Amino acid sequence: MESVPEEKKKLLSIIIPALNEQETIPILYETIEALAPELPVNLEYLFIDDGSTDGTMEVVRGLAARDSRVHYVSFSRNFGKEAAIFAGIQNASGDLLVLMDADLQDPPALLPQMITEILENGYDCVGTRRIDRKGEPRVRSFFARRFYRLMSKISKTEIVDGARDYQMMTRKVAEAILSIGEYNRFSKGIFGWVGYHKKWISYENVGRVAGKSKWSFWKLLIYAMDGIVAYSTVPLVISSVLGLVLCLVAFIFILIIIARTLIFGDPTSGWPSLACIIILLAGLQMFFIGILGQYLAKTYLETKHRPIYLVREDNLVTEDNKL
Ligand code: UDP
Ligand code: MG
User: Fold this and answer.
1) Count of CB atoms within 10 A of residue 224's CB?
2) Nearest CA, atom 2, ligand 1
3) Which residue minimizes the CA distance to atom 22 of ligand 1?
4) Quick check: 178 and 90 in contact, CB under 8 A?
5) Pocket-forming residues, ligand 1, beta carbon under 6 Å
């Protein structure tokens, strides 16, 4: 890549959501710094502390004291990675923005290629996807695969298997993402929904450098259900259709029973099967009322218009103390 004079260089904001990442943040910072001289952009770091309870904020404050390009926003509690992503995009000042996990599972080595795709090849955003899930628990990979397959069938928005939140985008795309002010945020869907010209880069999965994954199986399951409810109404259609089919079946049974009673008599026989049918139908009804409830609950939360996150502390450059 040809060299660009320092003052003409664009600014790249690296947005890093972090929940209890005291071990990984220094490694991440050093890795990116080692790469920085090769990059045709100036850098800004924006750490979003998502309510960490370890020394994450001490580490981040330490970096900010040494390096004026390090900014941070610290939440009042854990609001989840989605809220952190939103806060990052909202508060970044770069011409280009990139979302990056703190644990180096999003290889900084891909940055030069991502920058080239946007600055030279004219793409609006660059997404990354893992071509494998090496090093991940088997059960988790299995369900993740099923989830993406299901999503691609039941949602109109493209949600790519293996897609990471590691994305680079122009300011225009960032504005588009911010214009979606919904409370239940599912970034993988939002990125697909906004569209724009997107380049996908594939890479082999890497494990985290230190610390532990913040996602338990249950947290992921709930995340998957949120994604389905946010990006598809197919479960509602299924419940209506199944309800209709069951009514039809019941109607046919009634006709059969009437006919049988008229011909053979003995109307009281067969109560055990009746009990089973009632339990089955009651179960199904509850299941679908539950699905309905999921959508209702999400609508309820949206109508409250609560803020997506609350800030306890930050060192952002505001209009008053601009350099
Ligand atoms: N993270 C966050 N809030 C959360 C959970 C995770 O900000 O509630 C951050 C975490 O610190 C990391 C990134 O999101 O930088 C990805 O999390 P993790 O590596 O634990 O997830 P995995 O790679 O196992 O999917
Ligand atoms: Mg990780």
Assistant:
1) 18
2) 81
3) 213
4) yes
5) 17-19, 21, 50, 78, 80-81, 84, 101-103, 105, 208, 213-215
**In the prediction, which pLDDT does 322 show?**
45
Q: For residue 15, what are the β-bridge partners? A: 46, 99
Question: Separation of 44 CA from ligand 1 center, angstroms?
Answer: 21
Helix (H) / strand (E) containing 296: helix 271-304
What pLDDT does residue 6 have?
67
Cα(81) to centroid of ligand 1, in Å?
A: 6
Alpha-carbon span 318 to 321, nearest angstrom: 6
The number of residues in the chain equals 323
Helix extents (H) in 155-270: 171-178, 187-194, 217-231, 234-264
The pLDDT score that the predictor gives to residue 46 is: 95
Q: In this predicted model, what pLDDT tens digit does every residue of 208-218 receive, in sequence order?
A: 777 778 777 88
Nearest-CA residue for ligand 1 atom 19 is 213
Q: How far is CA 163 from the centre of its chain?
A: 10
Q: How far is the C-alpha of 242 from the C-alpha of 231, rounded, in Å? A: 21
Q: Structure tokens of 175? A: 């504005």
User: What residue owns the CA closest to ligand 1's atom 16?
Assistant: 101
Distance between CA atoms of residues 124 and 140, nearest Å: 32
Closest CA to 74 of 31, 27, 21: 21
Provide the token pair at 245: 């089919």
pLDDT tens by residue, 59-75: 999 999 999 899 999 99
Question: pLDDT under 70 in the chain at which residues?
Answer: 1-7, 135, 266-269, 272, 318-323
| Element housing 60 (H / E) | helix 56-66
What pTM was computed for the model? 0.73
* φ, ψ for residue 272, nearest 5 deg: -60, -40
Q: How many helices (H) and strands (E) does the chain have?
A: 10, 8
CA distances from 68 to 17, 43, 143, 174, 183 (A): 19, 11, 43, 23, 32
